[in-house]
UniProtKB/TrEMBL annotation:
It comes from Micromonospora pisi. This is ABC-2 type transport system ATP-binding protein. The keyword Ion transport does not apply. Keywords: ATP-binding, Nucleotide-binding, Transport. The keyword Nucleotide-binding applies. Residues 2-227 form the ABC transporter domain. Gene3D superfamilies: P-loop containing nucleotide triphosphate hydrolases (3.40.50.300).
Length: 306
């Protein structure tokens, strides 16, 4: 389990993290989302002891990363798909990593097998596609069989097959009881991959919830069109709906679903000309949540332009 407690990080005058707190639980895939510059990489780097927080702390199973004696056995991370030297073979790259952590070659062979790179184990990394390099990164993260796995933007630039592979790999790692945290700035990619989402903007936590909860919460309304809308409205209100008339004579109905509205109209012999359920996509919700933070960054970049 990862616990982030009131993390604040300043880079000079930039407040990258502002009292950020959250928990990441085992057995689930958790997405760490936020627009560019929101503070995701900074947070991951602090969790991994690569940056020092200005204040607050990040704990992995109750310890700071720099207090963990055999880190590769407890935390596996992929921050950059290009971390491996292009002149080395996949096997050599992993073998070096393994040796420095007291891990044997049999484990190297096993993780190469696990990520589907066994057939190219002795090929140079320089000739690998992004998808293969990403698999190699994950193989490195899995070397020590860690309970916690952190990935920074793992699906960035991958093709559909690569994304599908990452998704199923992360799901099975979580199903084994591991804590899996991955960052992304794209909700669309995360919606089908993660169970939980942590959304940040301007270094602050905006939302911590499950994907299912987020979908339910933001299910929107039904747009109803009827030549006798004025008669239909009180009937729907009587069913517990909240009904608002639009300027062009439609009804926006919240609280009852489209079939219920249709049935009520038939019972009252009121003709219906349109019945449109409108649910926000997770992407809409995410963009709405983070728009202020994104605008702030865009404005900031605009301001420094010559
Ligand atoms: N080493 C650094 N020195 C100065 N400022 C930094 C440094 N690292 C990050 N920042 C700033 O801190 C803020 C958070 O950056 P961070 O890279 O953590 O965001 P992010 O959410 O990972 O963004 P992205 O999706 O673009 O990678 C940004 O304003 C960034 O410019």
């Amino acid at each position: 389990m990862i616990v982030v407690k009131e993390l604040t990080k300043r880079y000079g005058s930039t407040l990258a993290l502002d009292q950020l707190s959250f928990e990441v639980h085992p057995g689930l895939v958790t997405g760490f989302l936020g627009p560019n510059g929101a503070g995701k990489s900074t947070t991951l780097r602090i969790i991994l002891g690569l940056h020092r927080p200005t204040s607050g702390e990040a704990l992995i199973d109750n310890r700071r990363y720099d207090r963990i004696r055999r880190p590769l056995h407890e935390v596996g991370a992929v921050l950059d798909a290009d971390a491996a030297h292009p002149g080395r073979t996949a096997f050599h790259h992993l073998a070096c990593l393994a040796r420095s952590n007291g891990i044997g070659k049999a484990r190297v062979t096993a993780v190469l097998e696990q990520v589907g790179l066994a057939s190219v184990a002795h090929k140079r990394v320089g000739g690998f596609s992004l998808g293969m390099r990403q698999r190699l990164g994950i193989a490195g993260a899995l070397l020590g069989d860690p309970a916690v796995i952190l990935l920074d933007e793992p699906v960035n630039g991958l093709d559909a097959a690569g994304i599908r592979w990452i998704r199923s790999t992360l799901r099975s790692l979580a199903a084994e009881g591991r804590t899996v945290l991955l960052s992304s700035h794209l909700m669309s990619e995360m919606a089908v991959t993660v169970d939980q989402v942590l959304i940040i903007g301007r270094g602050r936590l905006l939302e911590a919830t499950s994907v299912t909860e987020m979908r339910d919460r933001f299910e929107r309304d039904v747009l109803v069109r009827s030549p006798r809308a004025a008669e239909l409205a009180p009937i729907l209100t009587g069913l517990g709906a909240s009904v608002t008339a639009t300027k062009d004579g439609g009804l926006v109905v919240v609280g009852v679903d489209a079939p219920t509205i249709g049935d009520a109209a038939v019972t009252a012999s009121i003709p219906i000309h349109g019945l449109t359920p409108r649910s926000a996509t997770l992407e809409d919700v995410y963009l709405e949540m983070t728009s202020e933070a994104a605008d702030y960054r865009a404005a900031e970049k605009e301001a420094v332009r010559p």
